[in-house]
Protein 1
Amino acid sequence: MRRTTLAIGLVFLALAVSASALAQTSTKTPRKKAPPTQTAESQAALTPDSALEKLKNGNARFVAKNMRSRDWLAKVSATASGQYPFAVILACMDSRAPIEIIFDQGIGDVFGIRIAGNVVNEDVLGSMEYATNVVGSKLLVVLGHTSCGAVKGAIDDAKLGNLTELLGKIRPAVSAAGPGSAKDEAYVTKVAEANVRQAMKEIREKSPTIKAQLDAGTIGLVGAMYDVSTGKVMFLPD
């Protein structure tokens, strides 16, 4: 009798374990399908507004810890014969603001131009002209960030070799922001935002090619600020 009772108990235990395993399997979040690689067709189908939406959605995924799963080596193979990025992002070289990561984009999705203080020069403009006129990117983004070392250096009017000239490009933003201290993070952010707007102004004024595309509405130009403490990107109003 005891053996029969024990056998029945073991059967019920096995059934319970199986049911629990099945329940856990059924409640698991399905793995997300990897996003497709940008193609000439998918790039052409985008507008400046829809390109901006892709970046906004990507940053929202990053902040929510809901980034897409990617097979990076597969992306390498898929983009080996050509590239069709939908956006160009001019950003600071700061190691805390990696472009593809904070916007949850993959290989072949965006052009990244990185330079201290996200300043504009002839090489930056030439790179943007190549991206929009030759490759077909639909959106230009100037991305500043909080606690920017280059901005702090410009506020303090720092002098250091070739860096002196670079920081001089940020000085108009310091003047536009009014008096303040590099130790005041709110003021540093204010200058960084002014610097983003200054860069946008220079892009339009110093590149007739880009200005013509902007006026025609075939590409867009937006400014944004990345918060190094939260991971959020705030796009600046026009």
Protein 2
Amino acid sequence: MSGSPDAPHTAATRPAALRLAADLGRRRPLRLGVQLAVSAGIIAFLLWQIDVVKTFHLIRSSNGLDLLLAYAIFIVTTWGMAWRWQVLLAAKAIHEPLGWLTKLYFIGYAAGQVLPTSVGGDAVRILEHARRRPDAKGDAAGAVLMERVVGSAGTLVMVGIGLVAAIGRYDGIRLLIWLEIAFVLGMAAFACLIFSRRTNEWLQSQSGGRRLASAFRSLWGAMHDYRNHPGALVLVLVATVGLQTARIFSIWLCGEAVGLHLSPLVYVVMGPLLFLVMMVPFTINGLGVREAFFIAFLGRFGVGADAAFATGFLFYAVTIATSLPGGAILLWRSVRPMLVRAPQP
């Protein structure tokens, strides 16, 4: 590293993920404050609805082996998530090692604990990748966002499969069917818009404008270009269904850990909806919304609020544990420059 050994630890030497978190903290205090207030309000309401002592007992006496298996599923499937990203990048002739992309995924998980939901993690991945390939920022960002879009489509496929399997077995799923229809129609409309040649040609013909508008046109063009790579999109969609299925079993294991012996089919319906809800940036990392969803959904199947809250809390603990490798990477990258600059005895 060049420069004086005692040079200050400037913003330029800090990891991009940490800089983004710091920038968001400085520039959007009102938004973060509102999100924290919403989370706190929802959690306070839920704590009022449950028996805190009983819920704490369920969490404390939960089966550690089930939780360990749930954690292992999340860790292993992270490599699969990174592989999806690698496939979309390769379609644009951007070839990255799977290990490096997996590391960025873990960093994104860590950032997502303090930034607004998984969208914050996506922003960190885009920024980190842009530092590696500044000449392909549009295509790199487009790959991340297209991965999110196709991932959402795969989640809707999973919801549809679960609802079809649940017809005639469970009551009270009519609302879920209408929600699925609404999500599918919204996704279809977005796909028609993003892959429309006419829309893209009109957008790209708009010259001038501010830097943000130019970046938006570049990003839109990068996503639109995936219409020429249907094979990559189908491959990522199939992989998403497989990965989501595995992660649904991690939710089921959290329920088993507190003594809920429901059919995995319940979680096949619930899991994809939860993944969609977690993408909405109402709160910090979905705190409060996630637990409310567990109580509302599992209540339809005769599960008490205490057990449902405990299941949601344990699932949250699993996601926190999954972010620890990324947190360790960020911590090492922030400490390492200081160690390198430390004067030698």
Protein 3
Amino acid sequence: MSMQVDVQTAPRDGAAVRLGIALRLRRLELGLSQRQVVRLLGLSAHSNLGDYERGERIPPGDIVDACEQLLAAEPGSFQSLRREALHERAHRICARDTART
């Protein structure tokens, strides 16, 4: 089964979602379960990885680095999406705070 999803034009908007899709697709390409990846990364629960893959949470930088290495992703590819997601989140927070004043 081939999963062809263009990470740049994901159905839902936002870099956090695109990062999650990229993580999930690469994990599946390698035939790894969430539990396997969690064990290899030394995380305490696979629910964290699920949250990252769904774009519900932005993973910490060290986890993104570890995922790039573990999943043999292009160096910096996941980090680039993480930085974009953090920028988008900061922009949303600033816009919300500005709207309140």
